[in-house]
Write a structure and sequence with these properties.
Elements (H helix, E strand, L loop, with lengths): L4 H5 L15 H10 L10 H4 L6 H11 L3
Amino acid sequence: MECRKEENLKNCPCTWEPCDKKGICCLCIKYHIANNELPACFFPPDIEKTYDRSIEKFIETWKNKNNL
């Protein structure tokens, strides 16, 4: 399967500029899962900018945003 890096970059919300995985979703997901995290695209922009990509932050964020 061919990587669609340029197409993916158009929608990638990651603001971490030195990231070498930006636009290469399969590598991004693999990297973050290995670090017990989730990629930037799982978070709203205000939370993504904190660079806290932890699973705990994901749960906290969406729990609060959905008033659960």
